[in-house]
Amino acid sequence: MIPQKEERRDRRREGGRSCSPKQTPTRKFSPATHRRSNARCVYVAALVCVSLPSSSCSADMPPCGWLLLLSLAALTGNTFCAITTSQTERNCSISPPYLPSTVINTTLRLQELRKRMLPLNISAYIIPGTDAHLSEYIAPRDARLTFMTGFTGSAGTAVVTQTKATLWTDSRYWVQAERQMDCNWELEKDVSISSIAEWLISEVPAGGEIGFDPFLFSLETYENYDINLGSSNHSLTSVPVNLVDQVWTDRPPILADGIISLPDRVIQRTWQMKVEQMRKMMEDSPYRPTALLLSALDETAWLFNMRGNDIPFNPFFYSYTLLTLDEIWLFIHTERLTGELKEYLNASCAGPLCVQLKSYDSVRAQLQEYVARPGIKVWIGTEYTNYALYELITPVDKLMTSSYSPVLTTKAVKDETEQRILRDAHVRDAVAVIQLLMWLEKVVPQGTETELTAAEYVNMCRSKQKDSKGPSFETISASGANAALAHYSPTNESSRKLTVDEMYLVDSGGQYLDGTTDITRTVHWGTPTEMQREAFTRVLQGNIEISRTIFPSGTRGANMEMLGRRALWEVGLNYGHGTGHGVGNYFGVHEWPVGFQTNNIPFTSGMFTSIEPGYYKDNDFGIRIEDIAVIVPKPTKYGNNYLTFDIVSLVPYDRKLIDTSLLSMQQIQWLNKYYETIRTLVGPELDRQGLKEEKDWMLKNTEPFVPSGSSAAVTSSTLTLFALVLTLFHNII
């Protein structure tokens, strides 16, 4: 799956860059100024026409045509037949405004928010779309942007003043915003902080204060606002108590349970071993930090070998950790911990390996108390520490920073047990995906299935596998033109029927107690065009070329990312998203800081990453091939400490989309070896589960490839040799 994948950083920046494969020119929209080009054509949501011959009634007729038809009918005395057309987007330019049923009335919410802004002397209030841990996915109780606007897209920022309310989002969500927001809100078709700052400067009087919740700002986000507001005589005001929460009277509560410790069979290092490892890294640092502050949810979950269910698709729980050289402070909703968990954490003692449980909401006050002590220095990872905690660590000589905390960089390298069980999870996951592809191959020609039913089917298949804990993200099940949208997921309104005439892309993954999976396959059940076959094959070439690359340990993914694009570039094609991301062990499906982006850390043995080049033709089709790979040592003739990728996703590619004439001999050999691996690893698992039909399907689809033209070449050579022999024999005779 593509990080909305990249979007994780976009949300922290509240803009910066769009994740959509195709960049769309920025345009601004205001309900007050929006008008149709022909002012005489007024949209009528339900047109009633009575009596003309049925051939005269066309639902495709433009509005002016209907008005003319109505006029003519009135003049001639004809009766009418009823025709109804529906509008799915709001129209704020007519009176009364037209609002579709998907809109939420935000009038009272805005009134209450504005009341709370007044005593704080705030002229504007910024509402980001993230949580206090800068998470990629957020819990329903943190969906403040959605509560205030009605907009449910995964990227956006809202700003409210006493007279205006505006949402910024990228091109993927413009139509969705028009369908979900009422006319209290204006839409700015941009996501950059510079655009928001420009708007604030124009709307907020000089000297006005702009309020924000510092828990929802990353350091980078704050710095970008500060820079863009510059010398405009506007100041940012930190408001640690969230104003939206005060208005949100029916905000979803914290879950009462769901926190567990991992069983011994899936861990190699106890939490005590991990704590001592972190302390050793602190002691070895030349900057001599006295404490390590962990803010990202996966940091605390990894450190204590614990999991939760607070965040959709991610087994995390609300928490912070302050680890010192002789104390462990765990900030958590303590009422959720069972007696067994408290015993697991040694919560009843006071030694250096005893966890002191503190209220989740006390983290800011407790950190402030610790920072006030003499001789301390707090180590933070700037990528995931929110501004509410950062602003407390003063003066600067009490602060030590790195882009990522030592927990994140250590977690990125899987130990032997983690590597083994993550491989095992991918074998079982392959069974579920094979079941999906085989089923679709049989039922799609019947014309009964849709994008939604396919997504539901693969989730059902995964749920039957051992140690299944649900999907690792919302399945991207996309057919035809929908697949050209890289982040598309089907809804009841958008779901297309699957047909043999269109390409189909399915990007899905599972959470298992022993691992997290993410795999994309693109198929065609009919006759693909030559363009589709060529594009697919070139995407496959990119996947293979990265996978078979040998490189020195410490190489950055960004330095080899172009290998995934080269075959596409040769014919003027490209894709607009990243080429890969890290993957966790029953963690997030997008695990930073591993991957192919410039801000990712260098590759070392034991890391897992996705490899996922693609190609998207607007309004036609989309292609993506995604596999998860583990980085392993690779012996070479002369050098040591070289690495390569070992693919752990084990599902064959669609044979009819592969043009072997474009593949090199090395690429075909790699492909055949990969198929041998699928047979070796997945075959026994299919046998164990008694899935004979699925095994037959797998064997059929992993037959070795013969280089295009080689059969003909062999036959021609044989005939030539045979002719020479006959000629020689004839001459002898």
TrEMBL record:
Residues 109-231 form the Creatinase N-terminal domain. SUPFAM superfamilies: Creatinase/aminopeptidase, Creatinase/prolidase N-terminal domain. Keywords: Hydrolase, Metal-binding. Residues 1-16 have a biased composition (Basic and acidic residues). InterPro entries: Creatin/AminoP/Spt16_N, Creatinase/aminopeptidase-like, Creatinase_N, Pept_M24, Pept_M24B, Peptidase_M24_C, X-Pro_aminopeptidase_P. Residues 1-32 are annotated as: Disordered. Residues 421-631 form the Peptidase M24 domain. Gene3D superfamilies: Creatinase/methionine aminopeptidase superfamily (3.90.230.10), Creatinase/prolidase N-terminal domain (3.40.350.10). GO terms for molecular function: metal ion binding; metalloaminopeptidase activity. Residues 641-705 form the Peptidase M24 C-terminal domain. Belongs to the peptidase M24B family. This is X-prolyl aminopeptidase (aminopeptidase P) 2, membrane-bound. It comes from Takifugu rubripes (Japanese pufferfish).
